[in-house]
Each structure stands twice: as C-alpha cells, then as structure tokens.
Amino acid sequence: MSLKIYKGYRRCLLGLILAYQPVAAQTDSLLLTVDRLFDRGVQHSLRLQADDLKESMAKERLQTAKAARLPDIQLGLKGGVLGQPIVWKRGITDPAYPEAPDWSQNYAVDLVQPIYQGGKIRNTVHKADMEKQLAALQTLTDRAEIKLALLSQYMDLFTLYKQREVLVRNIEESELRLRDIRRLKREGLITNNDVLRSEMQLTNDRLSLQETENSIALVSQQLNILMGQEEDLILKPDTSMLYPVVALQSYDDYITQAYTNDPEMKLGRAMTELAQNEIRLARAASLPSVSLYASNALARPVSRTLADMYNNNWNVGISVAYSLSSLYKNNHKVKENRLTKSLRTNEEEQKMQRLRVEVRTAFLRHKEALQRVEALKLSIRQAQENYRIMQNRYLNQLAILTDLLDANSVRLNAELQLVTARTRVIYTYYQLQKVCGYL
C-alpha cells in the first residue's frame, strides 16, 4: 500500500470514528446498583409473574380442599303436571280412575355432614397445603436463577465500562507517544514507518473503543427491557462493588448451609412428603366413610292416597358406607404410591450429591478468582515497568517500535485481564451465595 493511499484510508477511518460521539453522551444515563438491578429485575420478570399466578392457584386449591369439611346442603324444587292414575282392584281388569289433583309439588332440603372418611379430607387438605409450599419454593428457585442471570449481564456491563476506561487511557498515552514519535521523525532519528505504525495502532484502539461503546448500549438495552425501563437509557454499574471484602468460610460450613437453605433441597424434601401423603390418600379409599344426614320435604299431593293436601316429613340419621371392592382394586394404587415415594427419596439423595458438587465447584472457583486477582496485580506492575523500560529504550534509540508496541499490548491485555478477574470474583461470590440458598 502506497503512502498516499494509506493517508486517504486513514482520513476516512478517522472521519468515521469522529462521526460517532460516545453513546453515553448522546442518551440519558442511569446509575444502576445491584440492589436496584435485583429489585426491578424480579419485579418485571414474566417468569416470576407466572410463578405468582401458580401460587395464587395453589392457595385457591387449598381453600377448596378445606371446604370439603363443611356440610353439603341441597335445595330441591319439583313441580309438574300429574297424570291420571289408574287402579286395578281385580287383576288387570275393571280399571278404576280415582280423582287426583292435576298438579304436583315437592320442596326438599337435604344436608350431609362428613364425619369420618378414612382421613381422605384431612390428607387432601394436607396435599393442597404441600402444593402451595411447592409453588412458593419454585418461586424462590426461579428468583435465584433470575438474579444470577441478571448479575451475569450486569458483570458484562461492568467489564465493558472498565475496558472503555482502559482503552481511553491507552488512547491518551498512544497520542502522547505518537507526538514523541513525530518529533523524532522531524529530527531525523527514525523513519516514517514508525509514524505510520503508531497511527495504525491508534486507529485500531479508537475502533475498539467504539465497539465497546456500542456493546455498552446493547447490554444496557437488554437490562432495561428486563427491568421495564426505557430502552435508550445507558446504565452505569456501581463501581463500589468491585472490591468486596468477604471472608471465605470453610467448605463444610457451605455444605451445611446449602442443605438447610437451598430452595431446590427444600423442594425435594417437600416432594417426598407429598408422596407420603399420596400413600395415606390411597389407603383412605379402603376405609369406611361415616356421615351425618338430615332432610326435610314438603310435597303435594300425598303420595299414597293422592289426596290434594301438603305432606311434610323430616329425618335425621347416620350413614355408614364401606366399599368392599376397594379390598382388591386399591392394592396396586397403594403399591404405586409407595414406589413413587421411594423414587422421590432417591431424587432427594441425587440432589444432595449434585449440591455437594455445585458447592465445591463454586467454592473453588471463587477461591481461584481471588487468587487470580492477586496474581494479575503483580502482572500489571511488571507490565507497566516493562513498558516504561521499553519506552525509554525506544526514545533513546535502543529498541525498535515493534518492541514498544508489544510492551504496550502486554500491558493493555494485563489490565483487561485484571478487570475480567475482578468481575469474576463478584460473580463467583454470588454464585456461591446461590447454591447456599442466600440469593
């Protein structure tokens, strides 16, 4: 590429870059803390809104199950045309047609109060209550997953802002370095090739900065949609959380906390208890049911004599029913429910095994992230010292530009790695909180 063509290409690139002002300067910005992120993200989550509806449905099912304890009351009203009765006094010959009213009426009130149904009502109420608890535990599980997903995007936004900060500082230093290189070129100490390479490096840095600005706008839009805010807001993360001081507990302590607080563990225990309740419900079908009944009826005409008069009668009693067929029909249902309980117990044990692995993984990853930050702090100091030495050597004509640019690239990569490592510490900390049931 000739020098003239390159200069034209460079002017076009610089014109495009300058045409794009920083995104944050074009739109409104909003400081977003982690607490606000979680509050608004949870409040506007469609998944959690669906969980709330499921909880409301479970509450209504519980009230429906409790209503089975109340008496059944029925009101009856019958009215209609009464046909001409026919009476045979001698076989089926010589029929008689007695007088009878043309209209019949019947008013009745029936009440049935369950007294004992083998524990069916009690266990049905307990089942509905357990389903209500399951819905609440599922909401807690989904809430923790949503918070962690929101935090992942928040950490991406945080990393992008720190990358922009590093790139801006690097561009400022590159401009100063380019100024020195042009001075050396005017003094005849270096060739024009060093000037061109420095300008190309500066152009690449500016393009990287523009890409970072665009990425900030895109991640901000995604979070704004999830939080129910205006999409054009540019979000700024809270930098105070970059240096958390959290003392690590022992692995056994985290395991104990996870067994006690993890919503999925609670969900597994509740499912096992629900399976045990299903066994009791299946057994209730093989037990007798006892009810108290009462009724009152007002009818016209009198059913025996067909006299056109009202007749009122009432009765109170106890009803006992026992299904003999349940002795041979219900056995397999009970066995199936016992197997279901064994399956739920097995799933609970599997979850305990997975939880130990998840806690161990989160614990070691968080510890690893902390160690990586400390190691990269040393790398930063070494990279900065290496760049300082190479810059002095280059200005004294003891090194070539390639060595200086390589040293700058190493320093830039080390700074970006430190930013990523710091955000990784925050994410692994919340990941550890999630598996312990605290998120």
From TrEMBL:
GO terms for cellular component: cell outer membrane; efflux pump complex. The keyword Coiled coil applies. InterPro entries: OMP_efflux, TolC-like. Keywords: Cell outer membrane, Coiled coil, Membrane, Signal, Transmembrane, Transmembrane beta strand, Transport. Residues 1-25 form the signal peptide. It is found in: Cell outer membrane. Residues 127-184, 366-393 form a coiled coil. One of its GO terms (molecular function) is porin activity. Belongs to the outer membrane factor (OMF) (TC 1.B.17) family. This is Outer membrane component of tripartite multidrug resistance system. It comes from Bacteroides reticulotermitis JCM 10512.
